[in-house]
Design goal:
single chain, Sortase, Chain: A, Sortase, 8-stranded mixed barrel, about 45% helix, about 20% strand, hydrolase activity
C-alpha cells in the first residue's frame, strides 16, 4: 500500500512538473510577441495623439514652426550639410535616466511609415540611445524632414531589439519602393533609389546634394551581428493619397494576427501536453 501511495504521489508530482514546464514554455514563447504587441500599440497611440495635437494647432502656428525648421535647414546647408562624426548612436548604451512621457512627447517630430514592411513608427527630432529605444530618430547635423531642395535627412533606427521590430525589416526595401514621412501635419513621399552597406564610420553620401530632396534610412546589419550599417536613400516624389495610411492599418492587423497566433499555438501546446499526459496515465 505504501508503495502504491508513493507511486501515486510521484505521479502527481510529475504531473505538476509537466504542467509547470508547459506553462513556463508558453510564457517564454509568447513573451516577445506580447511585449512587441504592447509596444507597437503604445507607438500608435503616441502617433495618433501627436496627429490630433497637430490637427488642433492653428494653421499659422504650424506654418511658423515649418518656417523655423526651413531656416535651420538653410543654416545646415550653409555649414556644408555634412553630419558630424561622433559616437555611433546605434551602439551607444542607454543611460539610466528616469525620463518621463513628457520628454518623449516634446521630442516627437512626426512619424515614418513604410508600407512595404508594414511599419509605422514615431519620429523624434534628435538621436540618442533613449529615443532610439522608442522609435526612429533624426541624426543631428542633417536636414529636418520637411522637404525642399538642398535637404538630406538621415533617420536612424534599431534592428533586432527583443521588444520592438523598428527597422528590422528595412533590408526588404528595394529600388522603387516608397516610404512616407509626416511632420507638423505635412505628408511627404519618398521613393527608394539606392541601397548600400557601409562601415559605421563611413558618412560618405549623407551630405546635402545640390537641388536634391533626400531622406536616408539607417539601421544596423547583418541581423544580430550589427558590424555594418544599411543605408536606404529615397528621393522626393508626388504624394498619392491614401497610401500612407495603409501601413498604419496593416500594422495594426498584423499585430493582432501575431498575438492571436502566439496564444493559439501556446494553447495547442498545453492542450497537446495534457492529452498526452492523460493517455499515459
Amino acid at each position: 500500500m505504501k508503495k502504491q501511495e508513493k507511486s501515486r504521489l510521484s505521479a502527481k508530482k510529475l504531473k505538476w512538473v509537466i504542467i509547470t514546464l508547459f506553462i513556463t514554455g508558453l510564457l517564454i514563447f509568447c513573451y516577445p510577441f506580447v511585449v512587441s504587441f504592447v509596444n507597437n500599440q503604445l507607438d500608435q497611440i503616441r502617433i495618433e495623439r501627436f496627429q490630433q495635437k497637430m490637427n488642433q494647432t492653428n494653421g499659422q502656428v504650424r506654418q511658423k514652426r515649418l518656417q523655423a525648421l526651413k531656416k535651420r535647414n538653410q543654416a545646415l546647408k550653409d555649414l556644408g550639410g555634412v553630419p558630424k562624426q561622433g559616437e555611433d548612436p546605434l551602439t551607444a548604451t542607454v543611460a539610466k535616466n528616469d525620463l518621463n512621457r513628457q520628454y518623449f512627447e516634446e521630442r516627437l517630430l512626426g512619424s515614418l511609415s513604410i508600407p512595404k514592411i508594414k511599419s509605422q513608427l514615431p519620429l523624434f527630432d534628435r538621436t540618442n540611445p533613449e529615443l532610439l529605444e522608442k522609435g526612429v530618430t533624426l541624426l543631428q547635423g542633417t536636414s529636418y524632414p520637411i522637404g525642399g531642395q538642398d535637404t538630406h535627412s538621415v533617420i536612424m533606427g534599431h534592428n533586432g531589439l527583443p521588444n520592438r521590430v523598428l527597422l528590422t525589416k528595412l533590408n526588404q526595401l528595394k529600388k522603387g519602393d516608397r516610404f512616407y514621412i509626416e511632420v507638423l501635419g505635412k505628408q511627404l513621399a519618398y521613393q527608394v533609389k539606392t541601397k548600400r552597406i557601409v562601415k559605421p564610420s563611413n558618412l560618405k553620401g549623407l551630405e546635402v546634394q545640390p537641388g536634391q530632396d533626400l531622406v536616408t534610412l539607417v539601421t544596423c546589419t547583418p541581423y544580430t551581428v550589427n558590424s555594418h550599417r544599411l543605408l536606404v536613400t529615397g528621393y522626393r516624389v508626388p504624394l498619392k493619397q491614401p497610401t500612407p495610411n495603409q501601413a498604419k492599418q496593416t500594422t495594426k492587423n498584423q499585430q493582432w494576427y501575431w498575438l492571436l497566433g502566439s496564444v493559439s499555438i501556446g494553447a495547442l501546446v498545453i492542450g497537446g501536453g495534457s492529452l498526452i499526459w492523460r493517455r499515459r496515465r
